[in-house]
Amino acid sequence: MNRITESYAVHAEMKPDQIAIIDEQESITYQDWYERVQRSAQWLQGTAHQQKRIAFLLSNGASFLQIFAGAACAGWTAVPLDPRWSHEECVEKLLLSEADLAIIEDRLMKRFEQSSVDIPFLSLSEWKERMSLLTDSPDNSCETEKDPVFYMGFTSGSTGSPKAFIRRQQSWIESFRMTTASFGITHQDHALILGTLLSSHFLYGAISTLYFGGTVTLLEKFVPVKAKKALETGDITVMYTVPTMTETLLQIEAFREDNPLLVMSSGADWSISSKEQLVTNYPHVTFFDFYGTSELSFVSYLSSNDFMQKPSSVGRPFSSIQVEVRRPDQSVCQPNETGRIYVKSPMTFSGYLHEQKPPEEWLTVYDMGWLDEDGYLYMSGRENGMIVYGGLNIFPEEIERVLNEQPEVKRSIVVGVPDPYWGEIPVAILEQEPQIKAVRQAVKEKLAAYKVPKKWLVIDQMIETSGGKIARASMKKWAEEQLSCKQ
User: Tens digits of per-residue pLDDT, 206-238?
Assistant: First the structure.
C-alpha cells in the first residue's frame, strides 16, 4: 500500500459495522468512515486549485480526521492550524503555506471576516452541508500519484520565525510498519487519543489506528476526569499521551490495576520518578517512551522493561534507523562521549517548504547526546538551547532532570537569560510555590556549581504548547520580562 488511507476500503468490506471513530458527538462505523473520506476526496478533486493544499482550523473531532484523510486520499496536502493561535499567527501560517482554501470552525469564522488572506473560507457547517450533497461517491477515487506530500506542519527555525515542513505518505507508512513490528499494535486495538490532533504524536496515533483497522476514541480536549472515565470502561488497549497528561492521570488514579494497557508517550520531560510510579503501581501497564522530532519522526524508544536497566536513556533506535553521534569535525564519537546526534531513516520528513535542496541522507536537528556501549541513546539537550555561561556549556535539560526528581517540584524549566558579565546565566522556573532553598540545595549536591541556576522564578502555571508540552521560547521570554522588572 502506498497511501495512508488505502486500507479503509478493505476495512469497510470486511467489517463494515465495526466502530472506527468515537468522538464526543458521534460514533462512526468503518463503512461510514470509508464513505466520508471518499466524499471528502471527491469534493477536493472537483475543486479548482493550484497548490492542492487545504488548511483547516478545527478542534479535535471526527471532522478534523475526515478532512485530513480526505486530503491524503485526494493527493492534497493537509495544513492543520491551531485554534489557540492568535489571528495574526493563523494568517502568518496561511500565507506561508500558500493554501488554496480553508475550513474554519463556525465559532472562529468571525476572525476571518476582514482577513488579508485571499482564499475561500468555508465554515465547518458549510463544508458538512457540501459533503451531504455528495452521495454517489465512486469507489477508489483516490489519487494515484506514487508518493504525494500529504501533511504540512510548522516548526520554529533557529531564528524563531516559523518554518513549514512537509511529509510524504511513504514516511508514515514506514512508521506504521514500525508501530506494528515494535509495539504489536494491530486492528484489534482501541486507542484513546488524549491530546490535540495538532500535535503530530496524537494525529499519528489516530491515523495509524485507522490504517490498522482499530478503533479511535477522541477527547475534544484533555480533561482528566473524561480520560479516567474512558479508561474505566476497560475497552481501551492503547493510550497516546505526553508526560504532563500521564502524571495528572497518576494523581487522580485513573489507571485500572487489572486492565492491560499500552501507554505510548512522547516528550523528553517525563520524570524517572513518574515512570517508576506507573510501572510499580500498575503492573498491567506497559509503556513506550519515544524520542523523535517533527523532521525525524520516530528515532528511538524506551520500553518499561528497558527503563529498569537504563532509566535515564531515551532508548534504542528503531530497527530501520541508524544513529551516529559526531564531533564538530564530523568524526564519530566514542561510546559515552557527547556530540551532535545524526539520524539516517526511511521515516524522515521531505524538507522545508521553499527550500530547494532535499534533506541530507543523514539528518540532524542539533540535539546533543551520546550512545552507551549497548547502543542506548541519551540526551544532553538542544545545541541551540545550550546556555553558554562564561565559556562553559550548560544543557538546560540536564538541570531539569534533577529538578523534576525533587518531590517539592511539580514542573520545572531552565532557560538561558542574557547577562552582561557571564554572557548567559541559567534561570530556573518552578511551577507553583515549592521550597526553593531545599530544591537549590539538592541541585548543588548533584551538579557542578556552574550548572546551578543563578536565578529562581516561580509561576502559577507553565505556558504550554498545543501538544501539552512546556513552551520553552515563551517561558524564556517570560523569564526575561520578570527579571527586567526586578532590576
Answer: 999 999 999 999 999 999 999 999 999 999 999
Mean of pLDDT over the chain: 90
What is this structure's pTM?
0.83
Query: Do 216 and 20 form a contact (C-beta atoms < 8 A)?
Result: yes
CB-based contact 394:426 (threshold 8 Å): yes
Q: How far apart are CA 124 and CA 54, in angstroms?
A: 13
Give the span between the Cα atoms of 193 and 195, in whole angstroms: 6
pLDDT tens digits, 419-447: 877 888 999 999 988 888 889 998 988 88
> Closest Cα partner for 132 from 63, 30, 78, 213?
63
Split into its structural domains, the chain has a count of 2
Q: How far apart are the first and last CA of the chain?
A: 61
Report whether 272 contacts 446 (CB < 8 A): no
- What is the C-alpha separation between 397 and 308, in angstroms, rounded? 21
68: closest CA among 174, 207, 208, 218? 207
CB 287 within 8 A of CB 263: yes
Mean pLDDT over residues 7-17, rounded? 97
For 202, phi and psi rounded to 5 degrees? -75, -40
Domain assignment present for residue 215? The answer is: yes
pLDDT at 473: 83
- Whole-number pLDDT of residue 159: 42
- Does residue 58 contact residue 103 with C-beta atoms inside 8 Å? yes
Name the one residue in this structure whose C-alpha cell is 479511535. Answer: 216
Instruction: Indicate the Cα dihedral angle 87, 89, 93, 94, nearest 10°.
Output: 10
Q: Structural domain of residue 390, as residue ranges?
A: 386-486
Q: Is residue 381 part of a domain?
A: no
Within a domain: residue 298?
A: no
Assess if residue 400 is contained within a domain.
Answer: yes
Burial class (CB in 10 A: 0-12, 13-18, 19+), 482: middle
At 188 the pLDDT is 97
Q: Are 5 and 37 in contact (CB under 8 A)?
A: yes
Q: Which has the closest alpha carbon to 249: 267, 237, 272, 232?
A: 232
